[in-house]
Prior knowledge:
Largest sheet: none
Oligomer: single chain
Number of helices: 5
Distance between the termini: 25 Å
Strand content: under 5%
Structural class: mainly alpha
Radius of gyration: 14 Å
Amino acid sequence: MSAIEAESEWLVALEKESKLDFLAKLAHTITVAGRNSYTPQAYGLAKPSQLRQINEIQHRVIACLVEVLRDQSSVSFQQSIAVWVLKQSDAELSELMSWAWFSTKEHSA
Length: 109
């Protein structure tokens, strides 16, 4: 089992309240990671394509959160969240998303 598969299984195994807590905190942490794409001390973007990818990841995380809240989330969709967050071809984005996932995991109930 790969590390990403292990994280997928970990997420699926969480009780509903813990899963909601993790997903909400993950969504927040991803916004912090998104700040890496900003131009320092300005309103522009230094890395717009990176921010676009982060937005897509966050969209999936929040969609999963909403589905879990409504008891409509499938196991396969929940498993895909770890893949969306942790499987990145860009090294910098991979580091940012790994930080988001594992720091959130460390600080979740």
